[in-house]
Amino acid sequence: MDSALISNIITVGALGMIALGVGGVSFIGLRAFETASRRRARLAGGGAAVAGGDSGGGGGVGEAFSGVVSGVRRLGDRIAIQDPAQLSSLRTKLMLAGYYSREAAAIYLGVKAASMIAAILGIVLLLPLALGKHSGMLPMVGGTAFALVAIMGPDQFIKSRRTKREREYREGFPDLLDLLVASVEAGLSLDAGVSRVTEELHRRYPNLAEHLKVLTLELRAGRARKDAWTGLAERLGIDEARSLATMLRQAEEMGTSLGDTLAVFSDEMRGKRMLYAEEKAMALPAKMMIPLILFIFPCLIGVLMLPAAYRIKTALMH
To answer: Whole-model pTM?
Structure first.
């Protein structure tokens, strides 16, 4: 059998397997279409009315973007997760990434479905290239790239946003505690100190300041302090916030001094941040080993050995 024909068969088979994989994942996501369409009114809520009211103003680009978002949201409503526990988990994940809208889950599911459809179309368009005379590994690489972007792209984007926000929260938490200790020791109450600290942290840590604003509004609305701080810890999603919420609840129940408690906790957070920085510094040599072996050592060996090899070659030729 001709080697070109064998290569074409292998390429088409690989693209077919990729298309089947992406199609299978898409089918799993779309298998609840009928049931989700019946629950569409409950999941969408009043979002359609809000979207219809907002579409009146804006230019052509804004209207086009709103139309795309509306179409993606409707697609997400049709394939919405039926299990309330899974839907709640998805909303929590999106909230930790900074998406607080009620329609965020539907838009996320719609984006995943649209990316699956786009990947399938891309793989189908690559089939003529795979069957052509100059076919090779390029169609397979393209099909694999489409499949990976469709399957892992939305999740990786949400994960990167969550990681970036958690890094900001961890960097700003010791500063938050220091300012809160200074405010409490200056005579302010804890609630007033949080409001004052929010103004100071807005420029350096804007996302953390937004969560503190929500905490301040909840306290002003009459929510219990321990519940408000527990809600802040859930929205931030870091261990430091959970520890602070637990400490404040215990201090309130036992009647201990908030200033001393916050001072001790602030020193502990400073020590943890220093230990975290030292841990990253100690891990740096191990991380540098791979680029050192792959890039720096070959260049160094080439610089040292090539002149000697040239001289040996010249001596042997004479």
So the answer is: 0.62
